Automatic annotation (TrEMBL), chain A:
InterPro entries: eIF3i (IPR027525), WD40/YVTN_repeat-like_dom_sf (IPR015943), WD40_PAC1 (IPR020472), WD40_repeat_CS (IPR019775), WD40_repeat_dom_sf (IPR036322), WD40_rpt (IPR001680). It is found in: Cytoplasm. Gene3D superfamilies: YVTN repeat-like/Quinoprotein amine dehydrogenase. HAMAP family: eIF3i. This is Eukaryotic translation initiation factor 3 subunit I. The keyword Repeat applies. GO terms for molecular function: RNA binding; translation initiation factor activity. WD repeats lie at residues 6-47, 48-89, 143-184, 185-226, 282-312. GO terms for cellular component: eukaryotic 43S preinitiation complex; eukaryotic 48S preinitiation complex; eukaryotic translation initiation factor 3 complex, eIF3m.
UniProtKB/TrEMBL annotation, chain B:
It comes from Frieseomelitta varia. Signal peptide: none annotated. Residues 1-21 have a biased composition (Basic and acidic residues). This is Eukaryotic translation initiation factor 3 subunit B. The keyword Cytoplasm applies.
Length: 326, 657
C-alpha cells in the first residue's frame, strides 16, 4: 500500500513512538515541536509547543494521558496528552538525551549528556502527580554515570530495573531501589542508538553504530541474536505478531552525499528474528532512517528520517502470506 | 645536616670522621652496590655488546706463522745465502718478524723453515702465492699456515660418508586444476596494516567455499603467478611464494623494501624491484631470481623513471627485454647476458611488446615530422618493417581493448558523458571494419528511470565474445553485459562505486569490486555470471583486492574444443542436473539449520513466557488492575468512537441531455 507521508517537521526526525493502543503516533525532531498524528490516516492531531531546542527523546505513558519530551534546551517537559498543554518543566545542566516512563508510569527516568563541566547523569523522578512542585522537587535518585554517556534507555518490566545503552556500546542493567549496576555487557563495538522491547518486554533489540542490531534478554542481558548490515543502524523494532525485526539506519549525515539513494542504503530492512536472515527491504527516505516503530497491531510500521519525513507503511497482503520455510 | 658534615670533616675532628663515615655515605653518595640477594641476569654482551666487539683480542701470533717445506738443506756457510733467497721470495708479502731454521747435529739445515709475518693476512697471502713455487730443479716450496697443521691433525682416519637427507616429496602445486567441477579459486585481501587478512575461496556452487584464511599473510598486497601455481606475498624483507593444497611456503626471495614483482610467463624467473634507495650502497634494487632454486640470477641497475614491468618477457621465458631512451636491450636466459653483447639502437622508441606465441617483438615509434608512425616487428634476431593499418576516430578515445580470442577490438570514444562504444573486426589484408557502433546516448537512457549511465572501461571475457562495459569510480559503477556475436545487451545494471572488474580465467563469472584503496564506503565484491545475473553480494569492511587464480593454457586441441562445443547440449544437461542436486542439498541444509535455531529459541522463549505469565499479578497492580497484555484484553474499558475522515472530493458535470 502507498505509504502515508507525514510532513509536519522542518528538520530531521529524532524519535517516533506509538501509544499503547496504536491509534496515535508521536514524533520529535530537531525542530522544537514534537507532533502527534492519527496513525490511521496521517492527520496531525496537534503539536507540543514550548521547547527552545532540538527534541532528542519522547515517551508516552501507557494510558496516553502524559507525554514526556527531552531537549537540547536543557529541559525535560511533561505534557497533557489530551490538551497538549505543558504541565511540568524540569531544568537540567545539559541536553536531555533519553527519557522513559516506567511500566506503571508512576516513575520516569531521563538522562543528560556529558557537557562542559557536567557529567552524564541519570535521574529517576516521581511523576505520578504532576504539578508545579515538580520542577523544585528532588529526584528520587540521581545517579552519576562515569564513563561513556547514556545514548538509549528502557525501563525493566515491573518498574524495578532500568536498562541503559551507552556511547561505547555497553549495556547496563540497574537496580532502581539500590541504584547499583546489576550487570553489564559489551557486545556492541560502538554507540547504542536505540533500544526497543518486544511485545511482552522480555527481550529487547538494540541498534548500534557498529552496523549491527542485537537481541538481548531483558533480565540477564544475554545476547540472543545478531543482525548484520553494512551501515550504522539507527533504530530497530520487533514485530508484535511475527518473528520479524525491522532495522533502519544509514551513513552519518556528513557522509550521506557519497551514497547513492538507488543503492537502498536508506531502506528499512526486514530480518527474521530467529534465523537472522534478511528477507525484505523497503525503500522510502532520501536520507538515513533515525527511528522506527511497529504499530502495536503489527499491520503497519512507521519510519522517521533525517529527511524530516515520517512515513507510515501499511503492509500488503503478501507480507502476511510470506512464511519462512523451516 | 650537610653543613654539620662539612664541619665534621675538618682535621680537628679527624677522630670523629671515622665515626661519622656511615652517616656521610648515607647522606651524600648514592649506594651503587647491589641489594642483597640481587641476581645479575643481564650479560655484558647485552649491556655493551657494541663496545665489546671493538675490544682487542689476545693473540700469540701463531696465525702469522707459515711453514715452508722443500727448502734446500745447506751447510752453515751457505745459510746466509739461503736466507737472502728466502727473504727475496717471501719477504715481498710483508715484513718477516722472525725466522727459524732448524738444524741437525752437523749444523745443516733440515729442509724446512718457520717464518713469522707482521700480521696473519700477509702470512695467508704468502702461503697461497708461494705454495708450489719452484726454487730450482730439485726443490719446490710447500707452504702452509702453521695453524693448518692443527686442522690436518684432526682429520678422522676413517672417511665417514655424509648421511643422505630424507626425501621430501614436493606437494602437487597444480592440485587445483584437478578439481572435478573445474571450480576456480580467487583470493580476497582486506584490512590494512596490522589487520591485513588474506582469504582464498573456491567459487563452488551454489555458495563459494573458504579454503584458507590467514591474517597478516602479507604486509601490503598479494599476486598470483601467471599460471596460477604460486601466490606471492610481500614482506619487509622480501617476497614469499606459497602453493600446494595447504598453501605452504615454496620459495623466499630476500630483498628489503620490495614493492613490485613480475613473474616470467613460464614461472621460471621472478623480477623484484624496490624503489628505496636508502638501504645502503650494496642494496640491489632490481633483481632477477630463479624461482625453483631461489638463486639470484642477476641484478640490474634501476633508474627511477621506468614503467613497471621494467622487463618484458618472451612467451617461452627465453628472452627478456628492457626499453631505454632510444635503445632496446634484449637479454637471453639462463645467462642473463645482453644478446649479441649490445643493445639495439631505436631512435624514438615509445613502447614495445612481445608476441604471445613467437619470439617476435613489436615496437612502436610515433610520428616525427615527416616520418609517419610505424610499428616494427623484430624477429630475434632478424628485423622486418610492416605497414600500419590505422582507423581514424575524430573524437577523443578513452579505452581500447582487443578481444582475447578472436579478431575484434572495442574502443570507447566521444565527449564525456555522451560516449559511444565501437567494435571493429580485423581481417587479413583488409582495413579493420566497423561492426557496430554502440550509441550510448540512447541506450543508456533506460525508459524506466531516465538515468544516464556512461562507461569508461572495457573488459573482454578471457574466452572472447562477451564484454562488460563499465563506468568505474567516477561513473557510479554502471555495468553493461554484451554479447558481441549479435550485440544484444544481456543486462544493464550497476554496482555503485565499482573500482575493479575481474573476469574469472574461464570467462564464466565476473566480479565487480569496490576497493578501499579507491573509496572508503560500500567496500566489497559482487559475483555475476557472464550474462550479468547477480549471484552473490559480499560486503566486506576494508576490502582491498580480489584476484582470480589464473589457469595455464588449455591442453585441449582446437579439434577437441570444437567437438565439445558441438556437444554442448549433452553436457549442459548433465551440468544442470548436477546444479539442481546441489541446490536441493543446500536448501535442505539451510532448512535443517533453521529448524535447529527455531527449536533452541522456542525452548528459551517458553521458559521466559512462563516467568512472564507468573508476573501477571504484579503487572495488574502497577496498572490499576487494567489488563494491557493484549491490545484487546481489556474489553470493559473500550469506548467505541466513530471518526469521520475526509477522503476525497470530486466534481462531476452531469450531462445535460
Amino acid at each position: 500500500m502507498k505509504p502515508l507521508m507525514l510532513h509536519g517537521h522542518e528538520r530531521a526526525i529524532t524519535q517516533i513512538k506509538y501509544n499503547r493502543e496504536g491509534d496515535l503516533l508521536f514524533s520529535s525532531s530537531k525542530d522544537k515541536k514534537p507532533n502527534v498524528w492519527y496513525s490511521l490516516n496521517g492527520e496531525r492531531l496537534g503539536s507540543f509547543n514550548g521547547h527552545n531546542g532540538s527534541v532528542w527523546c519522547i515517551d508516552v505513558n501507557w494510558d496516553t494521558t502524559r507525554f514526556l519530551s527531552g531537549s537540547g534546551d536543557n529541559s525535560l517537559r511533561v505534557w497533557d496528552c489530551q490538551t497538549g498543554k505543558e504541565i511540568g518543566l524540569l531544568h537540567t545542566n545539559s541536553s536531555v538525551r533519553t527519557c522513559s516512563f516506567s511500566y506503571s508510569a508512576n516513575l520516569a527516568v531521563y538522562s543528560t549528556d556529558k557537557a562542559l563541566g557536567h557529567q552524564c547523569e541519570m535521574f529517576i523522578i516521581d511523576i505520578k502527580n504532576v504539578d508545579a512542585v515538580l520542577s523544585q522537587a528532588d529526584a528520587i535518585s540521581r545517579i552519576a554515570v562515569n564513563g561513556p554517556r547514556i545514548s538509549a534507555i528502557l525501563w525493566g518490566a515491573l518498574d524495578e530495573t532500568i536498562i541503559t545503552g551507552h556511547e561505547d556500546g555497553e549495556i547496563t542493567l540497574w537496580d532502581v531501589r539500590t541504584r547499583k549496576k546489576m550487570t553489564s555487557v559489551k557486545s556492541h563495538k560502538s554507540q547504542i542508538n536505540d533500544m526497543q522491547f518486544n511485545k511482552d518486554g522480555t527481550m529487547f533489540v538494540t541498534a548500534s553504530k557498529d552496523n549491527t542490531a542485537k537481541l538481548f534478554d531483558s533480565e540477564s542481558l544475554m545476547l540472543l541474536k545478531t543482525y548484520k548490515t553494512e551501515r550504522p543502524v539507527n533504530s530497530a523494532t520487533i514485530s508484535p505478531i511475527f518473528d520479524h525485526v525491522v532495522l533502519g539506519g544509514g551513513q552519518d549525515a556528513m557522509d550521506v552525499t557519497t551514497t547513492s539513494t538507488r543503492q537502498g542504503k536508506f531502506d528499512s530492512r526486514f530480518f527474521h528474528l530467529v534465523f537472522e536472515e534478511e528477507f525484505a527491504r523497503l525503500k522510502g527516505h532520501f536520507g538515513p532512517i533515525n527511528s522506527l516503530a511497529f504499530h502495536p497491531n503489527g499491520r503497519s510500521f512507521s519510519t522517521g528520517g533525517e529527511d524530516g519525513y515520517v512515513r507510515i507503511n501499511t503492509f500488503d497482503q503478501s507480507y502476511f502470506d510470506f512464511h519462512f520455510e523451516y | 645536616m650537610a653543613k654539620k658534615t662539612l664541619a665534621d670533616k675538618t682535621p680537628q675532628n679527624e677522630d670523629n670522621v671515622k665515626n661519622n663515615d656511615d652517616i656521610f655515605n648515607d647522606d651524600e653518595e648514592p649506594n651503587f652496590s647491589d641489594p642483597e640477594g640481587f641476581i645479575d641476569d643481564i650479560t655484558d654482551e647485552e649491556l655493551l655488546g657494541d663496545i665489546l666487539k671493538q675490544k682487542p683480542s689476545e693473540t700469540d701470533g701463531v696465525e702469522s706463522v707459515i711453514v715452508v717445506d722443500g727448502v734446500p738443506q745447506v751447510e752453515p756457510e751457505r745459510l746466509e745465502k739461503l736466507q737472502s733467497v728466502i727473504s727475496k721470495v717471501l719477504g715481498k708479502f710483508g715484513t718477516i718478524m722472525n725466522q727459524y731454521y732448524p738444524k741437525n747435529e752437523n749444523g745443516y739445515t733440515k729442509g724446512y723453515i718457520f717464518l713469522e709475518y707482521n700480521n696473519p693476512l700477509n702470512a695467508l697471502a704468502a702461503a697461497q702465492s708461494v705454495n708450489n713455487y719452484k726454487i730450482d730443479k730439485q726443490h719446490t716450496f710447500k707452504v702452509n699456515l702453521f695453524t693448518d697443521f692443527k686442522k690436518f691433525e684432526e682429520i678422522a682416519d676413517e672417511w665417514e660418508p655424509p648421511k643422505p637427507q630424507e626425501f621430501k616429496a614436493a606437494a602437487d602445486l597444480h592440485y587445483y586444476l584437478l578439481e572435478p567441477d573445474a571450480y576456480d579459486q580467487f583470493c580476497v585481501l582486506c584490512g590494512n596494516g596490522a589487520s591485513v587478512t588474506v582469504q582464498v575461496w573456491q567459487n563452488s556452487a551454489p555458495e563459494p567455499t573458504l579454503l584458507e584464511e590467514r591474517s597478516r599473510w602479507t604486509e601490503t598486497y598479494v599476486k598470483w603467478s601467471p599460471l596460477g601455481t604460486y601466490l606471492a606475498t610481500f614482506h619487509k624483507l622480501g617476497v614469499a611464494l606459497w602453493g600446494g593444497p595447504q598453501f605452504l611456503q615454496q620459495a623466499r626471495f630476500s630483498q628489503k623494501g620490495v614493492e613490485c614483482i613480475d613473474f616470467s610467463p613460464g614461472e621460471r624467473y621472478l623480477v623484484t624491484y624496490t624503489p628505496r634507495t636508502d638501504l645502503g650502497s650494496d642494496q640491489k634494487r632490481l633483481v632477477i631470481w630463479d624461482i625453483l632454486t631461489g638463486q639470484e640470477k642477476r641484478a640490474f641497475f634501476a633508474d627511477g623513471s621506468s614503467v613497471w614491468p621494467i622487463f618484458r618477457w618472451s612467451h617461452d621465458d627465453k628472452y627478456l627485454a628492457r626499453m631505454g631512451e632510444d635503445v632496446l636491450s634484449v637479454y637471453e636466459t639462463p645467462s642473463f647476458g645482453l644478446l649479441d653483447k649490445k643493445s639495439i639502437k631505436i631512435p624514438g622508441i615509445r613502447d614495445f611488446s612481445w608476441s604471445p606465441t613467437d619470439n617476435v617483438l613489436a615496437y612502436w615509434v610515433p610520428e616525427d615530422k615527416d616520418v609517419p608512425a610505424r610499428v616494427t616487428l623484430l624477429e630475434i634476431p632478424k628485423e622486418k618493417q610492416i605497414p600500419v593499418d590505422s582507423v581514424e576516430i575524430k573524437e577523443p578515445i578513452h579505452a581500447f581493448a582487443w578481444e582475447p580470442v578472436g579478431s575484434k577490438f572495442a574502443i570507447i570514444h566521444g565527449e564525456i558523458p555522451s560516449v559511444n562504444v565501437s567494435f571493429y573486426e580485423v581481417r587479413y589484408g583488409h582495413q579493420p571494419a566497423l561492426l557496430r557502433c554502440h550509441v550510448h546516448k540512447h541506450l543508456f537512457y533506460s525508459t524506466e528511470k531516465l538515468e544516464k549511465k556512461a562507461c569508461n572501461h572495457l573488459f573482454w571475457s578471457p574466452s572472447g565474445q562477451f564484454i562488460v562495459l563499465a563506468g568505474l569510480t567516477t561513473m557510479a559503477g554502471a555495468l553493461e553485459f554484451i554479447d558481441t556475436n549479435d550485440f544484444t545487451i544481456m543486462n544493464s545494471t550497476d554496482h555503485y562505486q565499482t573500482s575493479d572488474v575481474e573476469w574469472d580465467p574461464t570467462g564464466r563469472y565476473v566480479v565487480t569490486a569496490v576497493s578501499s584503496w579507491k573509496t572508503s564506503v560500500d567496500n566489497g565484491y559482487w559475483i555475476w555470471t557472464f550474462q550479468g545475473r547477480i549471484l552473490k553480494r559480499v560486503n566486506l569492511n576494508q576490502f582491498n583486492q580480489l584476484l582470480w587464480r589464473p589457469r595455464p593454457p588449455t591442453l585441449l586441441t582446437p579439434e577437441q574444443i570444437k567437438e565439445i562445443k558441438k556437444n554442448l547440449k549433452k553436457y549442459s544437461a548433465q551440468f544442470e542436473s548436477k546444479d539442481r542436486m546441489r541446490l536441493t542439498r543446500a536448501s535442505k541444509e539451510l532448512i535443517e539449520k533453521r529448524c535447529a535455531a527455531m527449536k533452541a529459541f522456542e525452548e528459551y522463549r517458553s521458559k521466559r513466557i512462563q516467568e512472564w505469565n507468573n508476573q501477571k499479578k504484579r503487572r495488574l497492580e502497577l496498572r490499576n488492575a487494567i489488563d494491557t497484555d493484549e491490545l484487546d484484553s481489556d474489553s470493559k474499558n473500550v469506548e467505541e468512537e466513530v471518526i469521520e475522515f475526509f477522503v476525497k472530493e470530486e466534481t462531476f458535470i452531469i450531462d445535460e441531455k
